């Protein structure tokens, strides 16, 4: 029996040594150390042994088990180590491969135009003022000389949240809020860019959401000449040094007098499709701040005067980039937006 056990040990150790992978090793474990394994089988014959031989055989059987078990464990960690090594080699990174280019996004064409206009006015000493898009009726209309029931309100039908709260129809409430903060003390010199909303039937030139930039200057001795000079600088910087502006009388409730401002067309006055054969393109509305608006904001209209202007960056971007439909700005079609990536 002693001989049998020793042979079994030699046999098992050789098989463990030869095991090629973890599966084979596990099969060996089950075969030799399992309940139906040969060691158990041999020990069944213990009953025939003498009382003094029995414990000796029992001890030897345990030694054999321990030796085989230790060999299996040793082999197992060696095989696991090999597997890790093999995987590492398989997954080697080739650092000489060219990298994948990072996908850069690009600014929205409207953002670009707004930022260009902002830079231009910052260069002339203006600061940028912002305000809420969900606005009170008071700031959106009343503080701008548009009391409840004023007919000009019909031109700016909005989305009302309650009777007194609405989505702002223009960025003018930012002017009203800024003037209020100044508590009757000039100078005020701001531009207010932002999104505005009007109930409208969307088509190629109308969108219920659009963008505005308004400007406001309030100080002593501000005249119509300052307004004209400012807008001339603006038009030339944005559209080109050869461009001119012209002022036509108009009406806005919050300015008096009020003007529409046109810039000369790129066709040089000959007439083309863009200027509808007139040689001029309308770009903004402006005027001297109405004394009522100044007084309502706490400014002494005898001491202070000011001018205000408002323009649509959507329309300016359309002219600048030759875009034929305002809705492109708001539908977020990646094919449209990608055209404005900067290729440097
Ligand atoms: Zn033209």
Question: Would you give an account of this structure?
Answer:
- A seven-stranded mixed β-sheet has the order 1-4-5-9-8-7-6, with helices on both faces. Strands 2-3 form a two-stranded antiparallel ribbon.
- The model has no long low-confidence stretch (mean pLDDT 88).
- It is built from eleven helices and nine strands.
- The protein is of the alpha+beta class and 344 residues long.
- Helix 2 packs antiparallel against helix 4 and helix 5 crosses helix 10.
- 30% of the residues are buried.
- The longest helix has 38 residues.
- A hairpin with a 2-residue loop joins strand 6 and strand 7.
- It is rod-shaped.
- The site of zinc ion (ZN) has 7 residues, from loops.
Q: What's the shape?
A: rod-shaped
Tally of helical segments: 11
- Count of DSSP strands: 9
- The computed structural class is alpha+beta
Report the span from N to C terminus.
87 Å
Q: Beta-strand percentage?
A: 15-25%
Helix content: 25-40%
pLDDT averaged over residues: 88
Biggest sheet character:
7 strands, mixed
Please state the CA-atom Rg, rounded to the nearest Å.
43 Å
Q: What spatial order of strands do you see in the largest sheet?
A: 1-4-5-9-8-7-6
Order of helices and strands: HHHHHEEHEHEEHEEEHEHH
Q: Are there runs of 5+ residues with pLDDT below 50, and where?
A: none
Small-molecule binders here are: zinc ion
